[in-house]
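sry for the spam today, last one i promise. C-alpha cells for design, 141 residues
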C-alpha cells in the first residue's frame, strides 16, 4: 500500500485488486438472484409435475423433467457467472452477458409452462443486460 500525507495524519490508497463498480455489482447480485430463481423452478419442476401449466399445442414442448434439468444447469451457470462478476474477473463481463441472454431465451421458451416465474427471470435478465451494456455515471474512473 502507498501512504501519502504530511505530519501525523495520512491517507492510505489501495493499489491492488479489482474493484467492482456499481452497475457490475448490481448485475452480479442480480445474476445470483436469477440463478436462485432457476434453481427454485428446477426443484419444483422435477419434484412435482403439478407446478407446471402444460399447454397442449406449444411448439417448444419438452418433457417436464427436461425443463427441470435445463433450469438446474442454468441455475449453476448463471449463479457462477454472477459470482465471477462480483469477484471482478475481466472475462466475466462477456460471460455474464451471454449467461443473461441464454437465461432470458430459456425463460421466454418456458412462459407457457409457468408464466409468472418466467417473466420474473426475464425481468432479472433484462436488468442485468441493461446494467452491463449501458453507459452509467458510476462507470467513470
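last one done:
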Amino acid at each position: 500500500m502507498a501512504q501519502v500525507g504530511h505530519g501525523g495524519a495520512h491517507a492510505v490508497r489501495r493499489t491492488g485488486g479489482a474493484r467492482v463498480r456499481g452497475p457490475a455489482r448490481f448485475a452480479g447480485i442480480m445474476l445470483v438472484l436469477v440463478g436462485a430463481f432457476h434453481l427454485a423452478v428446477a426443484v419444483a419442476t422435477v419434484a412435482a409435475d403439478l407446478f407446471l401449466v402444460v399447454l397442449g399445442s406449444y411448439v417448444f414442448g419438452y418433457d417436464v423433467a427436461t425443463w427441470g434439468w435445463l433450469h438446474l444447469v442454468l441455475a449453476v451457470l448463471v449463479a457462477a457467472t454472477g459470482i465471477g462478476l462480483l469477484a471482478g474477473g475481466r472475462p466475466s463481463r462477456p460471460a455474464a452477458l451471454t449467461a443473461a441472454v441464454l437465461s432470458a431465451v430459456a425463460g421466454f421458451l418456458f412462459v407457457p409452462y409457468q408464466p409468472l416465474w418466467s417473466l420474473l427471470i426475464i425481468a432479472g435478465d433484462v436488468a442485468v443486460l441493461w446494467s452491463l451494456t449501458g453507459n452509467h455515471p458510476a462507470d467513470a474512473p
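The longest strand covers residues 2-4. ok im logging off now
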